[in-house]
Amino acid sequence: MIREDDTTPAARGPGEPLPQPPHSFWGAARRDLRLGVLSGLRTFLELAKVMIPAYGITLVLDRLGVIARLAGVARPLMQVLGLPGDAAVPLVVGYVLNIYAAVGSMQALDLTMRQITVLAVAILIGHNLVVEGAVLHKAGMNGFAFGALRIVAGLVAAIIADLLMGAVS
Amino acid sequence: MTGLAREFLVGSFDLLWRVFLIVVPIMVVLELLEPTRAFRALVRAWARVVRHVGLDERSAAPTLIGFLFGLAYGGGVIVRDVRRHDLGRRQVFIMSVFLSMVHAVVEDTLIFLALGASIFWLLAYRIVWAALVTVTLTALATHWLRRRRTGLPPPGAGAAR
User: Fold this and answer.
1) Is this model's pTM higher than 0.95 or not?
2) Among the partner residues B23, B78, B117, nearest to A116 by beta-carbon distance
């Protein structure tokens, strides 16, 4: 058995190396299992602390009609992507909520394969920005800056993809 | 308003349960796999690929997990390794940009493939795009940092952003 105090991740400083594993196979496996469960629970709690408020914010944004209003703003932009104006709804739904919600609202639209692919590129790069931004924030980055980056880079990637697909076909 | 509170409670529980079901097994499996030779070989092979966008070997494992499973689920590993290995802001920045552009390639790609989108654009194009954006932004951030504090620091030694 290993003592509690030197194996719990919480007891270790950031720079200190991991404790030496015991020599027996089962001892090592048991230590790894324990370490895994502990760090799993710990990261789960840390993620929960940022994800739940972020989720609450997205719900309120949805209820206040922010998604609908943003989709209205994004409508004219859809033309650049070769998409109908209504495609702004799944895009913004994806930004604020998540991929599943975006796919759900894509079902309501009548899109060609090419349009689906272009929209998919934009949504795959930018989605779930509030919750994932909170995770990036936890890692020490600016969640807002990364949200903006993902929206812009996703749209540019989608435009380039649309142009390239037009050039090929 | 009670409807919203209800939705928040149910949704929070659903989100937590999903994250729990994925994060804890990933951490346990990772902790068991990390000392094995096969896993280290895989990480080394992956490290040789992501070296081209400026990521070092210690950042390779969390990047691989985020690449495969996503920011929400891989985020746990990223947060853990940033602390455990003291990765430094430059590495965290590069990793965040790269993963922002391409992550959860298994789950997210499959969803859109099911809708009929083409796999080339969802995967190959997205990975190339991610590499381009990462290299460009890292170069810009390094350049901007060096100009701001004149004479400091040499590329690769300082922290980006």
Assistant:
1) no
2) B117
Which structural domain, as residue segments, surrounds residue B111?
2-148
Residue B141 forms part of a structural domain = yes
If you write DSSP's letter for every residue of A44-75 in order, what string do you get?
A: HHHHHHHHHHHHHHHHHHHHTTHHHHHHHHHG
- CB B83 to CB A14 under 8 A? yes
B119 in A contact zone (CB under 8 Å): no
Cα dihedral B62, B68, B71, B74, rounded to 10, equals -40
In a domain, B109, yes or no: yes
Report the alpha-carbon distance of residue A55 to residue A128 in Å, rounded: 9
Cβ–Cβ of A43/B79 closer than 8 Å? yes
Cβ-nearest to B23 among A47, A52, A55: A47
* For residue B46, pLDDT beyond 80: yes
| Mean of the per-residue pLDDT values of chain B | 85
Residue of A nearest to B128 (CA): A157
Looking at the 3D structure of chain B, how many domains does it have? 1
**pLDDT (average), residues A100-122:** 88
